[in-house]
């Protein structure tokens, strides 16, 4: 052991400048750890001649005490830094707001329609969007060459064979599935997405949503149909609403009718929403054609029923006076935010 050796460690200790808690701990190990430089000096001290012990012993003890003091001091500074510099943010500042999503207007109206028919005792049924010809057309009395089966009107997934696969053009296909599976009497509504090969414009879209309904039991009459639709219209558009039935044609119902409700904006006086007529068309309906009952294994001598179908976007357009169907599918937040408060309904 030499004086120089001790002096070197003294200098190193003086120059020591550890800032973080990690650096301080590393310095402690470097000087005072098992293999540290001061520990090494003490090891050597054991070997030296007795006449030097007093001299070096004092110097080493002073060095060790200084090292411990300096490292403790640095440690305190590092800990104080952590406490002061801790989280830099001002925790008392108000948080940054984040936007909550809200329900889409089509979902809101769909739920309203479903809730009304649930109250009347209807079950909700759903079915596949990719269907076959039989469930969309065949079982519903569409003749083989009906124009709806045309490529111009329907999106086909695979054509050219007996039962082509296609995107359903109405949720009447779910009613067919209900007739196949459910015990009689049947009372179902079928909400869902449908597809038609239409050019997209303010008034038409290739995707839209429907709620269709079906009721089959013994002795169901047109008067029952009319009453069901009237009750629905009053629940949906208000207790003063009147309905008007106009004769129409659908392959799967006979007789068939289109239904208008009295315009709830001008109350019959005539406005630009009802185009001055005082009436708004909302749905198609009719008595289930006996051919349809038969095609689905139901005895038309014993049972009769009615069916109806409406477009959800159309009802939503009337409810909120939306004049362009495309708004429903473009996800423009300015449009969607218009309906935030409708959630509270
Ligand atoms: N399926 C018809 C449509 O998509 C609506 C409808 C359903 C009409 C049931 C009458 C009876 O337009």
Please give a structural write-up.
The mean pLDDT is 90. The chain folds into two domains: 3-85; 105-344, Bira Bifunctional Protein, Domain 2 (BirA Bifunctional Protein, domain 2, 2-Layer Sandwich). The protein has helices at 3-15, 21-32, 37-47, 50-85, 105-119, 133-136, 172-181, 222-237, 290-295, 312-320, 333-336; strands at 123-124, 130-132, 156-158, 165-167, 186-195, 207-217, 243-250, 253-262, 279-288, 304-311. It contains eleven helices and ten strands. Strands 1-5-6-10-9-8-7 form a seven-stranded mixed beta sheet, with helices on both faces. Helix 3 runs antiparallel to helix 4 and helix 5 crosses helix 10. The protein is 39% helix and 20% strand. With 345 residues, the chain is an alpha+beta fold. 28% of the residues are buried. The radius of gyration is 41 Å and the shape is elongated. The longest helix has 36 residues, at 50-85. The chain binds phenylalanine (PHE). Residues 170, 172, 212, 250, 253, 284-286, 307-309 line the site of phenylalanine (PHE).
Total individual domains? 2
Range of helix content: 25-40%
Q: Within the CATH hierarchy, at the fold level, what is the topology of the largest domain?
A: BirA Bifunctional Protein, domain 2
Q: What is the strand arrangement across the widest sheet? A: 1-5-6-10-9-8-7
> Unreliable segments (pLDDT under 50, ≥5 consecutive)?
none
Distance between the termini: 90 Å
Radius of gyration: 41 Å
CATH architecture assignment name of the largest domain: 2-Layer Sandwich
CATH class category name of the largest domain: Alpha Beta
Quick one: how many beta strands? 10
| Nearest-integer average pLDDT | 90
Query: Superfamily at the CATH H level of the largest domain?
Result: Bira Bifunctional Protein, Domain 2
> What's the order of the H and E elements?
HHHHHEEHEEHEEHEEEHEHH
Number of helices: 11
Largest sheet, if any? Answer: 7 strands, mixed
Judged by helices, strands and strand pairing, the structural class is: alpha+beta
How much beta, percentage-wise?
A: 15-25%
């Amino acid at each position: 052991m030499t004086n120089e050796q001790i002096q070197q460690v003294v200098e190193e200790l003086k120059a020591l400048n550890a800032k973080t808690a990690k650096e301080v701990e590393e310095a402690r190990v470097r000087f005072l750890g098992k293999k540290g430089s001061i520990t090494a000096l003490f090891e050597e001290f054991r070997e030296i001649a007795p006449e030097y012990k007093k001299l070096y012993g004092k110097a080493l003890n002073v060095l060790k005490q200084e090292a411990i003091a300096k490292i403790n001091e640095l440690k305190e500074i590092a800990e104080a830094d952590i406490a002061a510099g801790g989280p830099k943010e001002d925790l008392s500042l108000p948080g940054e707001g984040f936007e909550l999503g809200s329900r889409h207007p089509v979902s809101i109206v769909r739920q309203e329609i479903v809730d009304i028919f649930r109250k009347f005792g209807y079950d909700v049924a759903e079915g596949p969007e990719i269907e076959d010809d039989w469930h969309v057309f065949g079982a519903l009395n569409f003749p083989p060459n009906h124009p709806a089966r045309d490529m111009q009107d329907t999106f086909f997934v695979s054509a050219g064979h007996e039962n082509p696969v296609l995107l359903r053009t109405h949720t009447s296909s779910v009613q067919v599935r209900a007739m196949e599976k459910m015990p009689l009497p049947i009372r179902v509504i079928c909400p869902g997405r449908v597809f038609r090969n239409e050019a997209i414009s303010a008034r038409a879209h290739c995707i839209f949503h429907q709620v269709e309904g079906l009721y089959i039991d013994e002795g169901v009459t047109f008067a029952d149909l009319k009453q069901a639709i009237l009750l629905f219209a009053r629940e949906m558009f208000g207790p003063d609403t009147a309905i008007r039935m106009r004769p129409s044609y659908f392959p799967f119902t006979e007789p068939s009718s289109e239904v208008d409700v009295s315009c709830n904006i001008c109350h019959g006086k005539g406005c630009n929403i009802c185009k001055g007529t005082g009436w708004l068309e909302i749905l198609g309906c009719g008595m289930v054609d006996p051919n349809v009952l038969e095609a689905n294994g139901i005895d038309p001598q014993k049972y009769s029923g009615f069916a109806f179908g409406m477009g959800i976007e159309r009802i939503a357009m009337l409810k909120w006076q939306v004049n362009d169907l495309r708004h429903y599918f473009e996800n423009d937040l300015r449009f969607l935010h218009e309906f935030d408060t409708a959630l509270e309904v």
